[in-house]
Specification:
The protein is mostly beta strands and 310 residues long. The chain has two helices and 28 strands. The chain has two domains: 103 residues, no CATH class; 159 residues, Pectate Lyase C-like.
Length: 310
């Protein structure tokens, strides 16, 4: 009995030591550098080279700093903990879309922040989205550039939330920002330029509500400036545009459903030099507060609903 008790205590002590070592290995602030090494502990004096190593080293809720201009991944970066990833001012911290999204968040309940980074496609191809979010995590993207990715600049599929501010998303092969099946986004002071399918897509294929607010932003080029769509009974898609400009698109404001409801509401904004000022399909609504400017848009489909000033 004494031997068994002593052995049990030894095992307990070993478990404590292992947990302590694991906890100590998790640092609040991890560092990356172009001359770093992934065998390093990711400290300021001994930085790592690539994002997966820093993600392993950093504690949940911590930060990863890119110290100089370089690319910091060799494959799609999967984020599985709450973390902030940012480049120091003046540096170009680059993440490439290789073999999938440049950055993807698959887990639920995380808080992730991307700041002052550049996301671009791998020159050899094979990438998809710039940032892809699944599940219920919250993502903030600030002071960043997402350019030329093959699919969506940012894609949110599911009941996650997205905040994008002071960021440019341009030249994506699909939409600049695509929201589906319960996602919610706040988009502010963002340039959405020449994305092939358009600026912002808000849609649902299930009975839930998908919403976006877009303010103080510019959308230019592509098929649709803002498109809302529902194909599910009880599905709701809503987009609210305020103090913004939509120009040089085919359909500036587009709303339509196969089932459910879809609407775009616009206030204090300029809709200029588009082929269609608005394109209202069956079940859709484009509503104006009455203080918008519509100019040099040669045609429209359906009717504009005037809801007066807010």
């Amino acid at each position: 009995m004494a031997l068994r008790t002593a052995w049990g205590r030894a095992l307990a002590l070993l478990a404590v030591l292992v947990c302590s070592t694991t906890a100590q290995a998790q640092i609040f602030r991890a560092y990356l550098a172009s001359d770093g090494n992934d065998a390093n502990p990711c400290t300021l004096s001994a930085p790592c080279r690539l994002l997966p190593a820093a993600l392993n080293a950093v504690a949940s809720g911590g930060e990863i700093w890119m110290l100089d201009s370089a690319n910091y991944n060799t494959s799609s970066v999967t984020i599985g903990k709450s973390v902030s990833i940012l480049a120091v001012p003046g540096a170009i911290g680059s993440v490439l879309a290789i073999g999938g999204p440049a950055v993807q968040v698959l887990a639920n309940g995380l808080n992730v922040s991307l700041r002052n980074i550049v996301i671009a496609p791998f020159p050899g191809g094979g990438g998809t989205d710039g940032v892809a979010i699944f599940g219920t995590s919250s993502i903030t993207i600030e002071h960043s550039l997402i350019t030329g990715v093959p699919l969506d600049g940012v894609s949110v599929a599911g009941a996650g939330s997205l905040k994008v501010a002071n960021t440019t998303i341009k030249g994506a092969g699909s939409f600049g920002i695509s929201l589906g099946n319960g996602a919610y986004a706040e988009i502010s002071r963002v340039l959405l330029l020449d994305n092939q399918e358009g600026g912002v897509y808000v849609g649902t294929t299930i009975p839930t509500t998908t919403r976006a607010t877009i303010s103080d932003s510019t959308i230019s080029g592509g098929t649709a400036g803002i498109a809302t769509e529902s194909t599910a009974f009880s599905g709701i898609s809503r987009a609210y545009l305020t103090r913004s400009t939509v120009s040089k698109t085919t359909y500036a404001l587009r709303a339509g459903t196969g089932a459910g409801s879809a609407a775009v509401t616009v206030a204090g904004s300029t809709i200029a030099a588009n082929v269609y000022a608005f394109y209202v399909e069956a079940g859709g609504v484009v509503a104006s507060s009455g203080n918008n400017t519509f100019v040099d848009n040669p045609t429209q489909l359906g009717s504009l609903t005037n809801i007066g000033l807010f």
